[in-house]
Amino acid sequence: MIRVLRHPSSVPAYRPDIYSRSAILDPYPHYRAMRELGPVVWLTHHRLYALPRYSECKATLRDDDLFLSGHGVAANPLINRLSRGTTLNSDGADHDRRRKLVAHRMMPRALRTLGDAVDDQARSIVEQAVSRKTVDAVADLATSLPLAIVPDLVGWPSDQRAHLLDWAAATFDILGPANLQSIKALPRSLHMLRFARRVVRERNVLPGSMAHELLTAVDEGSLAVEEVPPLLIDYIAPSLDTTISAISSAVYLFATHPEQWELLKGDPSLIPNAINEVVRYESPLRAFTRKTARASVIADVGLPAGARVLVLYASANRDEREWDAPDVFDIRNDAGRQVGFGSGAHACAGQGLARLETTAMLKALIERVDRIEVAAEPTWGINNIIHRHDRLPIRLVAA
Ligand code: HEM
């Protein structure tokens, strides 16, 4: 059978800027409008082919031979030229080698040793929050755990953590298009890279940590020293805001869906699926790009070699073609196939840790809290990539 391909110039165009402040604050109507236009949509503003539907996003993520990450995953040509040397921005054997260097530390077996300590930390964070009248679920619940765990795991010097959150958020922001938002973030992200280089130069890392293991590999001659700073950034940068997003969205969703909270409290074995449902419903990462290695076909659209394709995880996770009631939050949904952690070769290397932290927080909340109430209107952060609350005032009513 001969397939008639559509020329890229006939792809429907979407004119609004999906990275504008208002679209960042309320992205879902844009995602819906793009999905309705078709499987491939030309973003006039950013000169990208966007994939708003689930099936094309998943297929693209799984074909890493055709849809490359090594030329960068940002929607921004300048950043794509600068950001080389990370696991996220590499392909094939190079990617496998980088991933093997560190990812074993994030596997369930390696994380098992952390389990009790994380549970204890989560309990004490919740205990403190319960003792106060109103707390900010972002600063007082969601941030404490990732910030207490990942920098130690990576080996970041203990006295140099004041800027980590800000630098990490900036490192996501610059992966958006070349808008004012990413231009403003660039100096802070470069600061993080320079600082990581200094940490490596001065060998100022925690003993037994990931950084320590990488420096040992340098001493043994199996790794070049200049590869270490990007690898540290690789793990520290995506480990904070993403998990903060998942935990604070979970708190908000359970506060505003008390019947779902009752369900979870009645059956804590629903926690793993509840985490999938939170990540599906409020995907912490909006989108990354790929570059086509050669002429390719997505749905019925023929794309040239070197085209930039935007994979919209957050839109795929609300695609009405894939989900029966995509805009309903229900922890009994079959949410395991959500793509909020990506899919294929580049699927999130830290998801075991993110799930461990979010599970610990939900378990601690279930044990100690009867009801979660929203105390004031929450606000959302402005970031090209990260979708998370900025402030979320809540009251925890003790059990
Ligand atoms: C809820 C929390 C998290 C979410 C939603 C999330 C999401 C994602 C997504 C969508 C990707 C795929 C990127 C792509 O397709 O190009 C990814 C990759 C990655 N994530 Fe996460 N992430 C989370 C937490 C973490 C944590 C805690 C860490 C580290 C401790 C981490 C480290 C990484 C790394 C290293 C990669 C690159 C993997 C590769 O390219 O092979 N992430 N993450």
UniProtKB/TrEMBL annotation:
Keyword Oxidoreductase annotated: yes
Family of the protein in this entry: Belongs to the cytochrome P450 family.
Organism of this sequence: Mycobacterium adipatum
Entry protein name: Monooxygenase
Pfam families attached to this UniProt entry: p450
KW Metal-binding (keyword) present: yes
One term of GO molecular function: monooxygenase activity
SUPFAM superfamilies: Cytochrome P450
Gene3D superfamilies linked to this entry: Cytochrome P450
PROSITE patterns: CYTOCHROME_P450 (PS00086)
Keywords, in A-Z order: Heme, Iron, Metal-binding, Monooxygenase, Oxidoreductase
